[in-house]
């Protein structure tokens, strides 16, 4: 009945504000059947009542609303059972009083479902009417609606609260475990991804090394094949290698003049090209420079006599034969 008591307190405040209560209560005639405790509360021996009605129960509130507020009594009269169709303020106050008495006088404090629903419906209708009288929307109607589904067993309430708290703790632990597993899975996923990237990098490096090794093997096989099939003795080849190293050093300051490209084109398209010029004009330097440019496509064979062509020339092999003095034969 908590919401009903609170609503009756608001109703008493509506008719008699707490600040005016001491003055009003002194001028009012109170019934002789009031309990000693109630009388001491509102009429202390010294001073005056200074509360806000929060310390009053439904019985005292009913007595005050009936006797000091000037509320018109319902058709059956104060203290009598109201008529079902009577929706006056006093009739609604009477309904709440009777509902309180019925609950308080029930055997063992227990009510059947039918009795409870009948009392609840009556109280709810009265609370709705009094909410309208107070102009506070549906404040107490909501609280009464909540009570219909509430329990009055404190032991069972505590049991359910304990179970709910236990379930909440278990749910929180489950959520934390799920989050931990998610983080662990994400970390494992990142580690696997990093390992895959390392493996891919290693595989790419191995492929590059394999390709490079295959190229080196092919070059070595080509050089071996060249040496095996060459008409040039190995010791002469070594001399040629040293000679070509000398050519490369001496070729560093070589400058290609305007006629160079024309001569290079003729060397690439003709079998024999003879470069003619005066002493010191650079014929030999020109021949060596061209031979070095063609070394990736040809085997360079330095010769000092036309007889070397017959001796070192090899059919089916690209060999620019550089003759000292300005002659090149392919």
TrEMBL record:
Coiled coil, from the record: 164-209
SUPFAM superfamilies attached to this UniProt entry: P-loop containing nucleoside triphosphate hydrolases
UniProt-listed InterPro entries: HEPN_DZIP3, nSTAND3, P-loop_NTPase
Keywords annotated in UniProt: Coiled coil
Keyword DNA-binding belongs to the record: no
Domain Novel STAND NTPase: 254-315
Keyword Coiled coil among UniProt keywords: yes
Domain DZIP3-like HEPN as annotated: residue spans: 37-160
Matches recorded under Pfam families: HEPN_DZIP3, nSTAND3
Name of the protein described by the UniProt record: DZIP3-like HEPN domain-containing protein
Organism (species): Magallana gigas
């Amino acid at each position: 009945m908590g919401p009903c008591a609170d609503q009756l307190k608001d109703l008493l405040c509506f008719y008699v504000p707490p600040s005016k209560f001491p003055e009003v209560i002194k001028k009012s005639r109170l019934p002789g059947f009031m309990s000693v405790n109630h009388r001491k509360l509102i009429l202390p021996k010294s001073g005056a009542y200074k509360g806000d009605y929060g310390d009053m129960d439904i019985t005292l509130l009913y007595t005050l609303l009936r006797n000091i507020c000037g509320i018109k009594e319902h058709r059956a009269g104060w203290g009598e059972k109201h008529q079902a169709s009577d929706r006056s303020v006093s009739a609604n106050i009477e309904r709440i009083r009777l509902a309180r008495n019925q609950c308080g006088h029930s055997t063992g404090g227990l009510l059947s479902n039918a009795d409870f629903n009948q009392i609840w419906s009556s109280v709810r209708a009265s609370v709705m009417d009094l909410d309208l009288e107070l102009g506070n929307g549906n404040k107490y109607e909501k609280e009464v609606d909540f009570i219909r589904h509430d329990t009055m067993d404190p032991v069972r309430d505590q049991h359910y609260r304990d179970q709910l708290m236990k379930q909440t703790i278990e749910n929180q632990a489950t959520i934390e475990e799920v989050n931990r597993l998610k983080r662990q899975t994400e970390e494992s996923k990142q580690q696997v991804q990093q390992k895959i990237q390392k493996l891919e990098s290693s595989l790419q490096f191995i492929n590059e090394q394999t390709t490079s090794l295959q190229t080196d093997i092919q070059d070595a096989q080509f050089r071996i094949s060249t040496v095996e099939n060459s008409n040039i003795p190995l010791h002469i080849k070594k001399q040629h290698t040293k000679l070509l190293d000398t050519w490369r050093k001496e070729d560093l300051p070589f400058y290609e003049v305007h006629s160079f490209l024309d001569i290079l084109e003729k060397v690439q398209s003709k079998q024999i090209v003879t470069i003619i010029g005066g002493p010191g004009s650079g014929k030999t330097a020109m021949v060596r420079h061209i031979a070095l440019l063609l070394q990736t496509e040809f085997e360079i064979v330095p010769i000092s006599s036309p007889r070397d062509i017959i001796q070192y020339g090899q059919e089916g092999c690209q060999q620019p034969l550089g003759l000292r003095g300005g002659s090149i034969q392919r």
